[in-house]
Amino acid sequence: MLTVKNIMLVFMDFKKLREKAFKETINEVRKEKKETDNLVVQAVEAIDELDDITNIIVERVKNWYAFHYPELEKLVKDPMLYLLIIKEIKSRDQMLAEKLERFVGPERAKAIAEKAVGSMGAEIVDKDLQRLVHLAELGIHARQERDELADYIEERTKEITPNLHAMLGGMLAARLIARAGSLERLAKMPASTVQVLGAEKALFAHLRRGVPSPKHGLIFQFPQIIQSPKKQRGKISRALAGKVSIAAKEDFFGNKDISKELIQSFEKRVEAIKEGASKKKGGKHE
Amino acid sequence: MNEIFHNVFREGNKLYTKNLVPGQRVYGEKLLETGRGELREWNPNRSKLAAVILKGLKTFPLKQDSKVLYLGAAQGTTASHVSDVVDKGYVICVDVSSKAMEELIPLCESRQNMLPVLGDANRPGEYAKYTLGINMIYQDVAQPNQAKILLKNASLLDPGEYAILCIKSRSIDVAEDPKKIIKKELESVSDGFFVREVIDLEPYHMDHALAVCEKKLS
Ligand SMILES: C[S@@+](CC[C@H](N)C(=O)[O-])C[C@H]1O[C@@H](n2cnc3c(N)ncnc32)[C@H](O)[C@@H]1O
């Protein structure tokens, strides 16, 4: 049949079309993958917000419940445990050792039960208690959602930025990307900027939530740096920033997995730093 | 071993296609050396098209020189067997997922009659430059609006040409009876197509059916 389509076919060169398709599709896949870094940024910010929300709820529930059983706050320091006990056991007169043992060890359960009997707090009616219990539930949900978001971030960063993920873990990788604004920006930053990235934000968190004061950037959260003697931290973080910067570049501009090499060469560098330090020390003592 | 369609072989309950790229396995399937060349086992649990063939599909619109538009190619499991069959034609493989595309691209590189396109089957205009010559559509997008999607792509076919539509009844409405959903989908497809054959995919794939449709004179 001589349809328009059949005429077109005569002129069509499949090989050329195919070449064009590869070029275009590969480009689009790359582009799209990079654009999804924004999802991770949103998730990281949501985690921080959920942390704030949970803290606010915990404070409120503690204040509120202290009206009824003020001694509990001292007995249960872990905020999530505190919310959970209120959600499940509710009123003071239900705080029996065998019920509490689902949440805490037998001794603490006994202590909580005993203090409940002689509590200084006022009685509370169901109507009032119910509102408070719901608030505790909300706090628990917020924490659960936070944990799920953290899993999601692990999974997504592994797909989007495999090298950064392998080096730093998903959370830290995502925080760096969020702080930089995008993977592209992170990839284009000099290592020295990467090293201090997040210092201002961390200062803010320090003031707001009492996390340790940050003279340094986000990568200072990296276990190997925290665990090192103070004097070596600067050098190690500079070395790490260098590798992180390379990882980000590969994740953005390339698509190879070079994380093994990066981790190895970082570890070598750390060893050298530690050796250098112990030699110096030895020298002084002589 | 019987060649039941071009490059499609059957022996008992096993199905094979003649491997376009000898030595290549796409999803861990078995390879079989025969007098007719190397055959690749076609797993009905992994591929809906294989399942309906084993269940006795009569209308098989794939020909040696078919030019297929494959919507929802995913990692290319079924598309690779289609590429085996249409060894003088080609397969334009469309999928929206860039994740799937990452696996599909290398597969297409190794098979010279496959072409990868990152695109949304809801918007055929976006991949129009690749679909000029096609004369058959295979669609497996597992989306609630699957029938509408096929109709949107129908203008790429001339009357008398075929489309194969995989219908997933669960993705449309979890609560409704799958049989009813399949019927409804087929009704809307018949705006543009004669439905020539419908086969459900049990026991290989639950809540799925596959319909062979012929484009109507518009
Ligand atoms: C069930 S899988 C297909 C499996 C494949 N046909 C096979 O048998 O090997 C469905 C695929 O459709 C893709 N998809 C979903 N919606 C789509 C759309 N609007 N356009 C193109 N592809 C779509 C999904 O990304 C997914 O890869």
What does this protein look like?
In chain A, 78% of the residues lie in helices and 0% in strands. Chain A has 286 residues and is mostly helical. Chain A is flat and about 90 Å long. Chain B has 218 residues and is α/β, with parallel strands linked by helices. Chain B has one domain: Vaccinia Virus protein VP39 (Rossmann fold), CATH 3.40.50. Chain B has 5 helices and 12 strands. Chain B has helices spanning 48-54, 77-85, 98-110, 146-153, 178-189, and strands at 2-5, 8-11, 14-18, 31-34, 37-41, 67-71, 90-95, 114-118, 136-139, 162-168, 193-200, 208-215. In chain B, helix 4 packs parallel to helix 5 (178-189). Chain B starts with a strand and ends with a strand. At the A-B interface, helix 1 and helix 2 of A face helix 3 and strand 8 of B. Bound molecules: S-adenosylmethionine (SAM). The site of S-adenosylmethionine has 19 residues of chain B, from helix 2 and strand 7.
- Count every helix of chain B, treating DSSP H or I runs of 4 or more residues as helices: 5
- Enter the CATH topology name of chain B: Rossmann fold
User: How many extended strands of chain A?
Assistant: 0
Give me the oligomer status. Answer: heterodimer
- Based on the structure given, which CATH architecture of the largest domain in chain A is correct? Orthogonal Bundle
**Major protein interface:** A-B, 19 and 19 residues
Question: How many strand units of chain B?
Answer: 12
Bound molecules: S-adenosylmethionine
Summed up, the domain count of chain A is: 2
CATH structural architecture of chain B = 3-Layer(aba) Sandwich
- Largest beta-sheet details of chain B: 7 strands, mixed
Please tell me what the overall shape of chain B is: globular
Fraction of residues in H or I helices of chain B: 10-25%
Supply the helix-strand structural class of chain B.
alpha/beta
- Helix-strand pattern of chain A: HHHHHHHHHHHHHHHH
Which spans of chain A of ≥5 residues are poorly predicted at pLDDT below 50? none
CATH topology of the largest domain in chain A: Helix Hairpins
